[in-house]
Automatic annotation (TrEMBL), chains A, B:
Pfam families: MaoC_dehydratas (PF01575)
Source taxon at top rank: Bacteria
UniProt cross-references to SUPFAM superfamilies, sorted A to Z: Thioesterase/thiol ester dehydrase-isomerase
Domain MaoC-like intervals: 13-129
Protein name per its UniProtKB record: MaoC family dehydratase
Lineage, highest ranks first: Bacteria, Pseudomonadati, Pseudomonadota, Alphaproteobacteria, Sphingomonadales
Length: 156, 156
């Protein structure tokens, strides 16, 4: 049994890298067809008539791909997974550049704020700044997830 | 040809309703299996061991379902669709309650802030407060998308 990484073990500045993951044209179109069927997410022809110029992924597809990379990495680190209580939300989500079919994404998450919970001593709040990059090391998306994290149990 | 709803036609307090949409167990599991394979998003058995209690949708599935409802409603209103330039991001995304298989979601978007763009006179920035409700009229998610909107072309 791995000792969990508790809230008290986390420091501002800690970072966590995840990815890479390459997104295909079929995946971009399939996600958009189901969840965001705006024409510029469905074909190059429609995108050429907009400021996108060519097919780009739905911004919500990019957030889902962030989660896919992040969870895969967490599941390689059982010590982190054991103490994570999920996220209550996200601040400052920004789509900075289009994500294109064939792009290879990766990300980094850095702790920027830690706060104990007054009402719930069994958990703390961890804010991270997440940046997702493409294969040219351009930032395509940034956000600040607000995660809940288990505190170290009191010694009995 | 419908006259577009330009930035100048939008007022703080304007609201826009969308949905409903019912999410199935198969959809919850399929989304999670692809993008957020944490055990509590994959089976009731695993969820029973967590604070979720039973199967709940990935928060990113809920954002994707928001977009699905929102785009469907936009596509019924060509006047709005013509002047929308997409979103640059989202502030204050909060997952307030679990979304469960069989839940029927709906949403409302209300304009809370309007700002002309100094650098790009052809567009304005529209902030909306979005609330997603379940069939019990409980808010399950809130957020503030930041949309770009075409301004009325100058008369030549």
């Amino acid at each position: 049994m791995v000792e969990p990484v508790y809230f008290e073990d986390i420091a501002v500045g800690d970072s966590f890298a995840f990815g890479p993951l390459t997104v295909t044209r079929d995946e971009v179109i399939a996600f958009a067809a189901e969840f965001d069927p705006q024409p510029f997410h469905l074909s190059d022809e429609a995108a050429a008539a907009t400021h996108f110029g060519s097919l780009s992924a739905s911004g919500w597809h990019t957030t889902a791909l962030f989660m896919k990379m992040f969870v895969a990495e967490m599941q390689r680190e059982p010590a982190r997974q054991a103490a994570s209580l999920g996220a209550m939300g996200v601040d400052e989500l920004r789509w900075l550049r289009p994500v294109r079919p064939g792009d290879t994404l990766r990300g980094i998450s850095e702790v920027i704020d830690l706060k104990a919970s007054r009402s719930r001593p069994e958990m703390g709040i961890v804010k991270n700044r997440v940046t997702i990059f493409n294969q040219k090391d351009e930032a395509v998306m940034t956000m600040v997830p607000i995660a809940m994290w288990r505190t170290r149990p009191a010694q009995g």
